[in-house]
């Protein structure tokens, strides 16, 4: 689930956001917050590099980040994250295996970090927290399936328009070459679309 917010995301906002997936009590939310450590990222700083194991789940407080696959000195952008989203490479974090992908801060960012070990402890102590994160994963899978169908069935003009309607703020915050990569559009065609389509 995404919103169009990229400003700083408060603790109270986070509780409200998590409750959209599955209600948790104040005690359960406080237990999550007690395990969290905050981190500030510079522009273009890596959260995860290919080959690293993602040992922490990132809860985005501010800024924009991107997941990418690097090949032949080129970044192929897979996803963007921003508040109030969670940031994870699912197989690396869930299975604690080296990632094939990178996660990089596109802008200066603030993230809260929850370690894999602490999350497992929370699951054991609070079954409702485990239900919460299962529901988040289910919503993510549905969203990824919808995006896959969208990319397969839409023309480049339709993909561009859908992206702009869903995340218009990214056009001002993210270099257009990364958006073009994410949408699977040639940079020249992206420039033409950007200058010709009114959103």
From TrEMBL:
PROSITE patterns reported for this sequence: CNMP_BINDING_3
Domain Cyclic nucleotide-binding: 20-63
Gene3D superfamilies in UniProt: Jelly Rolls
Family annotation (SUPFAM superfamilies): cAMP-binding domain-like (SSF51206)
Name of the protein described by the UniProt record: Crp/Fnr family transcriptional regulator
Lineage: Bacteria, Pseudomonadati, Bacteroidota, Cytophagia, Cytophagales
